[in-house]
Every structure is written in C-alpha cells, then in structure tokens.
Write a structure and sequence with these properties.
The chain is an alpha+beta fold and about 425 residues long. It has 3 domains: about 15-125, Butyryl-Coa Dehydrogenase, subunit A, domain 1; about 130-225, Butyryl-CoA Dehydrogenase, subunit A, domain 2; about 235-435, Butyryl-CoA Dehydrogenase, subunit A, domain 3. It is about 50% helix and about 10% strand. It has helices at about 15-35, 35-40, 45-55, 75-85, 90-105, 110-120, 235-265, 285-315, 320-355, 370-380, 385-400, 420-425, 430-435, and strands spanning about 125-130, 145-150, 155-160, 170-175, 185-190, 195, 215-220. A 4-stranded antiparallel sheet has the order 2-3-7-6, with no helix packed on it. InterPro entries: Acyl-CoA_dehydrogenase, Acyl-CoA_DH_C, Acyl-CoA_Oxase/DH_mid-dom, Acyl-CoA_Oxase/DH_mid-dom_sf, AcylCo_DH-like_C, AcylCoA_DH/ox_N, AcylCoA_DH/ox_N_sf, AcylCoA_DH/oxidase_NM_dom_sf.
C-alpha cells in the first residue's frame, strides 16, 4: 500500500472543516500512536483527555467569543469519527461533557446559562452520573438530596454507575431525587469531600472510558449547583446515541486502516490455495480489505448525515413555529435511530472480517486487533438496537413519535407497559404533520 494515498473517506461536512480540524488531527495522531499499549497496560486517559481540552475540542461548539469554534453538529460528529478511529475510549469519555455543552447552549437565557458558558469557556470538563444499578422503579432514584438546615444547603448521598468520563472530570453531571420526589439535576465537583470515583468498570470493551462507580457520602451541595430543570435538551436522545454511532464508525475506520498495511507487509502465502506470489496480490484477500473499507465508509457517511438532522433540531429552538420545532425534534430522533442498527452491523462486520484477510498471527495480543470488536460490541450493547428498529417502524407505519423520555429500571407495580407507555400514547403534532 502506498503511504501517501489520499483519504478515501470523502470530503468533510463543510468547506471549512479541513482547516477547523487540522489542529485536532495532530492530537488524534498522538492518541492513536499508543492506543494498543494503553489497552494492553490499562493506562487511563488522563493525558489524552487533557490534550484534547488544551486543543479546544471540549469547547468546539461554543462561539468564538467564548473560546470555541462555533462548530456545527455535522462538523463535531465528523471530528468524533476521526477521534474514534484513533481511540474510541476517548470519545466515550468525552460523551457526557459534549452533551452538557449542548444542554447549556440550548438552554434559555438565564444567570445559570451565563455562569456555565463562562465555566465551559474556561475549560471546565464534566462527566456522567445519570445511571444507577439495582431494582429502582422507573422514575425513582437511589441517589438522594436532603436539606442540611444548619448549613443552609443540601446533602447528597448515593451511588452511580456508568459514570463515563467522571474520573477525568472537574464535575459530575448527575440526577438525584429531592425530598418531594422530584428528580433534579445536580453538578457535583469531583474534588468535593465525600465524592469517591472508582475505576471498576470490568467490561471487555471500553476499558479506559472510566465508566465505573461514583459514590457520594454527605456531599455538601449549594443551591447554585442544582439545575433550574432536570429536563435535557429536546434532541438529547438522538445526540447521545449519535456519539456512539460516530464512535462505531471510527472503530470501523480503524479496522480498515490497520488491516491494509498488515496485508501489504505480509510475505507468506498459502501454498496450494492461491496462485499468486505475493499475499498482497491475492484477489480474495484484496476483496476482504475492500469490504472492510466499504463498511467503514458507509458507517461514517450515515453518522454525518444523521448529524445534519440534529443540527436542524438545534436550529429549530429559535423558531417561533412550535409545530416545526416538534417535527424537527422527532425527525432527528428517527434519523439517528435509522443509523443505529445499520452502523452497528457495519462496525461489527468490519471488526470481524478484518481477520479473514490475515493469518492466525493476527490474533496476537500485541497487534491489539481484538480491541476493535470488543469496543464495538460493548458500545452496541449500551442502548438495545432492536428498540430503535421498532421505533422507526412505528413512526413510518403508525405515525407514532419517538418517546419524549427513556430510562431504565423496574416497572411500577401493576404497570407492565411502563417502558412503552409514551409510545402507545399516540402521535404528537410533529408525527401528525409528517403522517399527513
């Protein structure tokens, strides 16, 4: 393979993209250089995350006057695909923070918004604290806020799991249950007394994303750290899911870009099974390499296309047309869901097929080729893809919109349909418009 071949992944999502992403690519390159070694040695991502903070990726969506680039969502997701090719653990570690940036940008003008825009502009970084293990009923949480009358503040107690990125963060963006039963959003400084963040995620993939446990014991919480609303931005479901999709596309690219030079460098052939003198000339092997590259190409194209739908949803907030806003939000969810199963299949096929182009030596741990499948399979298990297919079908057949809220937990007593109640409630205004 010629090292100087131009990229075949296609043009970026905008005319300015190449200029915008150039400084980040230097960081991506350094991250990729040690990706296998980090996996083998379980070397956490503190320096990699800090390098991306220093390079400005964590502020990319902020306007230039706040130190950002004013990047569009297609530009952001195109960059995340490239970062996913370098190391998908890093993208997952950034996922919650990027969502919080989007939440602040999308929120109404308020002192809270101004405060957090300033903190984000200063480089503050947040991790995730929304998930809990155990048998909690849907709509309830084990993590609780209670008043501390003497201090005139609140105390936070509980535990979270899948706290992706929090080990690298300044803040944990989490939800807790207030004394009146309401679910509230809270931003907790990771260095606060009573906060303990563990690197205890033991999954076979995404091992460096710091997705383990966070414990909170009598953590003092000021009123200012409680969000005005626990509601996420309207296109948040599609946004967070598309980060995974973009990461999967990046994994597929990594599989493609690693298999080609390995085939080119291989000198041994399978005698009696091929008529070629060089392994790199075997048409069956070349077919496998071509297939892996094609799978990665389509995965990336699908992710960027869905990001355009998210951008339309983000732009709709300023519209005075409520019906148009609802339609944009619903369609962004549908377009992202349409990518989920397909891109999952593409990534899993790419990360499996690459081994068909190589010999048994490709299974050696030093190559780290197994990490591609492990990471892809782990990401694919976060949000069951079967529900995305059903959601898309329900939209197109019945005009039923995506659920406004999703969650995980046990069903309330006597409510076996709790998980699908929002889908059974009938079309929204947006669905009615499109179905008509």
């Amino acid at each position: 393979m010629t090292a100087s071949l131009p990229s075949s992944w296609g043009q970026g999502p905008s005319d300015r993209y190449e200029t915008l992403v150039a400084p980040l690519r230097r960081v991506f390159h350094r991250i990729r250089e040690r990706a296998v070694q980090r996996e083998l040695e379980h070397e956490l991502l503190f320096s990699e995350v800090q390098a991306l903070r220093d390079a400005g990726l964590t502020r990319w969506r902020l306007p230039p006057e706040l130190g950002g680039q004013g990047a569009t969502l297609p530009e952001l997701f195109a960059a995340l695909i490239e970062l996913g090719e370098a190391d998908p653990n890093v993208v997952n570690a950034l996922r919650s923070h990027l969502g919080f940036v989007e939440e602040v940008i999308d929120s109404v003008d308020s002192p809270w918004r101004t405060h957090w825009l300033q903190r984000l502009a200063a480089g503050d970084f947040s991790g995730s604290g929304f998930s809990e293990t155990g048998e909690h009923v849907l709509g309830t949480l084990g993590t609780r806020l209670t008043p501390d009358v003497q201090a005139g503040q609140w105390r936070l107690n509980g535990a979270k799991f899948y706290t992706t990125g929090s080990l690298y963060a300044d803040w944990i963006n989490l939800t807790a249950q207030a004394p009146d039963g309401r679910i509230v959003g809270v931003l907790v400084p990771t260095k606060s007394e009573g906060v303990e963040i563990l690197d205890d995620w033991d999954g076979f993939g995404q091992q460096l994303s710091a997705s383990g446990t966070a414990r909170f014991e009598n953590v003092l919480i000021d009123d200012a750290l409680i969000k005005p609303s626990a509601e996420r931005f309207r296109y948040s479901s599609g946004f967070f899911q598309l980060v995974h999709v973009a990461t999967l596309a990046g994994i597929a690219r990594a599989a493609a870009s690693e298999v080609a030079p390995l085939v080119a460098a291989r000198t041994r052939i399978y005698g009696g099974r091929t008529q070629v003198r060089r392994f790199s000339e075997d048409p069956q092997i070349l077919q496998v390499v071509g297939r892996v590259h094609s799978l990665a190409y389509v995965a990336g194209a699908a992710a960027v296309q869905a990001a355009r739908a998210l951008q339309r949803a983000a732009d709709a907030r300023g519209s005075g047309d409520e019906q148009a806003r609802d339609e944009a939000y619903a369609l962004s969810d549908i377009e992202v869901s349409q990518t989920v199963t397909v891109v999952t299949d593409l990534a899993l096929e790419a990360t499996t097929r690459l081994f068909d182009a190589l010999g048994a030596s490709a299974a050696k741990r030093g190559y780290g080729l197994d990490r591609h499948w492990r990471n892809a399979r782990t990401l694919s298990s976060h949000n069951p893809r079967v529900y995305h297919d059903r959601q898309v079908g329900n939209w197109h057949v019945n005009g039923t919109p995506p659920p406004a809220k999703v969650g995980i937990g046990t069903a309330p007593v006597g409510d076996g349909q709790a998980a699908s109640a929002s889908e059974a409630s009938g079309p929204s205004k947006a669905a009615a418009v499109v179905a008509a």
